[in-house]
Prior knowledge:
By secondary structure, the chain is an alpha/beta fold. The chain has helices at 27-36, 52-65, 81-92, 110-119, 139-150, 170-178, 200-207, 219-226, 248-256, 264-267, 284-304, 309-324, 341-351, 363-377, 391-403, 413-416, 437-444, 467-476, 488-494, and strands at 2-4, 7-9, 41-46, 71-76, 99-103, 126-132, 154-159, 184-188, 227-234, 237-245, 259-262, 273-279, 326-328, 334-336, 355-360, 382-385, 408-411, 425-432, 456-462.
Amino acid sequence: MSIANGxxxxxxxxxxxxxxxxxxxxxxxxxxxxxxxxxVNWAYFLExxxxxxxxxxxxxxxxxxxxxxxALIIIAPKGVYRNWVSIEIPAxxxxxxxxxxxxxxxxxxxxxxxxxxxxLKPSHSLRVLVMNVESLxxxxxxxxxxxxxxxxxxxxxxxESTSIKSPKAARTKAIIKVANLARYRRxxxxxxxxxxxxxxxxxxxxxxxxxxxxxxxxFFQFQARYAVIRRQQFGAHSFNRVVGYQNLEExxxxxxxxxxxxTKDECLDLPPKVYSVREVSLTPEQNRIYNELRxxxxxxxxxxxxxxxxxxxxxxxxxxxxxxxxxxxxxxDISEIQDNRLGELMSCLAESAGKVIIWSRFRxxxxxxxxxxxxxxxTESVVTYFGDTTDDERGRAIDSFQNGxxxxxxxxPQTGGFGIxxxxxxTVIYFANSxxxxxxxxxxxxxxxxxxxxxxxxxxxxxxxxxDERIVKxxxxxxxxxxxxxxxxxxxxLT
Length: 495
């Protein structure tokens, strides 16, 4: 508020009335942009499928046309960041805006290095840099990002911002260190909290530590304010453990000052999700190996009284591998186990109408599922999308599934579950689930998002009275498994 000639004048933020969109925005996207576009810091907590990427691109385009920025820098996880260059920016950035765009690669060739060097020079075009967040753990990646920020007036956005939720992670420390070099900062995620409210601290500090008041500069102060901590003893070991949370209403009020939260239920007229399970019986060999692994894990718990989170998850993963039809040794060798799961999957496919996504966390599963589908339905009917898939192949796989002849999309949710659109699917099958809640929810919403007009059926393959049941129950109840299975809780999972 200011005073002119004795009259109080209220500041009215400029609006995007003169901005012309390339793709027509939904009402909720317009509302978010009008509230946020000229703010220095803003969090786009928009649920998957509601268009947070589009909002960020339009935000950057409007700021560029107003002369407020000359660069857009997108930081995203490895499985997502290339989609900004190949899909999102071409789809939503207005054609009238001239761009110079580079994708960061640590192993860049001479031509790519030349383009990256040129991106550091002043230009009348909008300079766009897309980097994977993992590269910030390296000196080379951090040095380039710093140089880019120092040579520009940039909007710096972190997509899937829970990738920087850990205060101790090198990439988190790196991006927080250079964040203040950006003129504008944005974070984008559908689920800012994947394990606990403590996930919020680093994401907010990236934008500005003052946003969280007195707790913004120190994680332990933040934890003390919003978490309930108890000292716990496990055998000879003791440590502080978060057992609950407090003052969350206060935290929510703070967040509303610099964030927009949109859920699909609030803004989209999407068809419903329908969930079901298909039971898979174990073969005698599977049953024997599974019980041996379970008994071994229980014995270790009884002997040691204390088990690290890493060792817990290792045991669960091995048991899950057995359930899906293979076992992997410590040396990395894989042995096939006779199973009924692949046969049950093929029965599901035969009964399903339209296109189908099949998710499995294991590379071995993806390869044998692909081989079986290709044998029955033909090689053109199926595409894969996982760590071994090249960038060019990934683009062709998505296009073939969305617009072409491929009926089946086989992928692991860690790679294909983020940042891509697979709305051609009417059925989604989980052959072997990830333990991570955010990954499960992200993978579900590849099909259930803007552009989907059909009911989407979600099918979990489970072996009764095994950890399969526990995993599916936890995920559908929106619980993160990694934070649950410790000590006595693990015994419940195994018995």
